Amino acid sequence: MTSVPELLDKDLSLLLVDDDKPFLTRLERAMQKRGFDVRTADSVAAGMAQVKSNPPAFAVVDMRLEDGNGLEVVSTLKERRPDARAVVLTGYGNIATAVTAVKLGAVDYLAKPADADDVFKALMAHEDEIKADPPENPMSADRVRWEHIQRVYELCDRNVSETARRLNMHRRTLQRILAKRAPR
What we know:
The protein is of the alpha/beta class. It folds into two domains: about 5-130, Response regulator (Rossmann fold, 3-Layer(aba) Sandwich), CATH 3.40.50.2300; about 140-180, Arc Repressor Mutant, subunit A (Orthogonal Bundle). It has helices spanning about 5, 20-35, 45-55, 70-80, 95-105, 115-125, 140-155, 160-165, 170-180, and strands spanning about 15, 35-40, 60, 65, 70, 85-90, 105-110.
C-alpha cells in the first residue's frame, strides 16, 4: 500500500460529497490524517460547483443525495479532470448502479458503511496495481436481492402492484417477500 510520505509529491486534493453530515465529518478528519487536502460538499449542486471551480485529484461521492444522483458529480469530474480517481459510496448497492458508476469513471464502488481504511484502499488501489481487498462480510445474494426489491418498492411509493409489475413478479410473491425480515 502506498504510504502518506510517498504521496507527498502528488496532488492530494480530495472532494467528499455526502449528505450524511456526521459521516462526512468523520471521513473528512480521517482522510486529512492520511495527508489529503479535503474539501466537502453536501449536495450534487455543491459538489458540481467545487468540481467546476477546481477539479480535485480524488473524490468520494455518495450515490443518492437529496438533490439528485452523485454520479453526475463523478461524470463531470472525469470530463474536467480525466486522471481523477473517484469512489462511489452507496447504501443501496446493486449491480446496475455499480456498472454505471464504473462506466462513468469511478474506480470503485463501496457499500455503506465504509470506513476510512476501505475508502483509502479504494482510492489508492490503482497506484499499486493491486485491487482492494474484498469486504470481510459481503452481503449475501439473498440480501442483495432483498435490498433491490426494497429499493424498487420505495421508488414505487410503496405500491405493491406497481412494484410487482416493474420487477416482473407475481404480486402475492412480492407480498410474501415484503412480509419477511431481511436476510443476513
